[in-house]
């Protein structure tokens, strides 16, 4: 997932990974949560969802 976001940012994006417990996965962009695995029924993002998230990142850049 990090590589996907980095490919959108082309070096204009800073990514920080912070370990969590019990499979926690959140994506926060400019202090706004754009993805939370817990809110998505514990599912890893599908290809379609990943494209949506990449579009959000691209729009912010």
Features:
15% strand, 36% helix, alpha+beta, globular, two-stranded antiparallel ribbon, 61 residues, 2 helices
Would you tell me the structural class of the helices and strands?
Answer: alpha+beta
Main sheet summary: 2 strands, antiparallel
- Number of DSSP-assigned strands: 2
| Helical fraction | 25-40%
**SSE string, helices as H and strands as E:** HEEH
Which range does the strand content fall in? 5-15%
Radius of gyration of CA atoms, rounded to a whole number? 11 Å
- The helix tally amounts to 2
Distance between the termini: 17 Å
Bulk shape:
globular
Task: Tell me the strand order in the biggest sheet.
Answer: 1-2
Low-confidence stretches: none
Rounded mean pLDDT score: 86
Q: Can you offer a commentary on this structure?
A:
- This protein is of the alpha+beta class and 61 residues long.
- The protein has a domain at 19-51.
- The chain contains 2 helices and 2 strands; from the N terminus they run αββα.
- The protein has a two-stranded antiparallel sheet.
- A hairpin with a 2-residue loop joins strand 1 and strand 2 (32-36).
- Helix 1 (2-9) packs parallel to helix 2.
Question: What's the helix and strand layout?
Answer:
Blueprint: H1 2-9, E1 26-29, E2 32-36, H2 47-60
Antiparallel strand pairs: 1-2
């Amino acid at each position: 997932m990090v590589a996907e976001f980095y490919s959108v940012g082309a070096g204009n994006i800073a990514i920080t990974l912070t370990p969590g417990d019990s499979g926690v996965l959140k994506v926060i962009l400019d202090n706004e949560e754009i993805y939370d695995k817990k809110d998505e029924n514990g599912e890893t993002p599908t290809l379609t969802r990943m494209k949506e998230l990449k579009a959000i990142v691209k729009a912010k850049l």
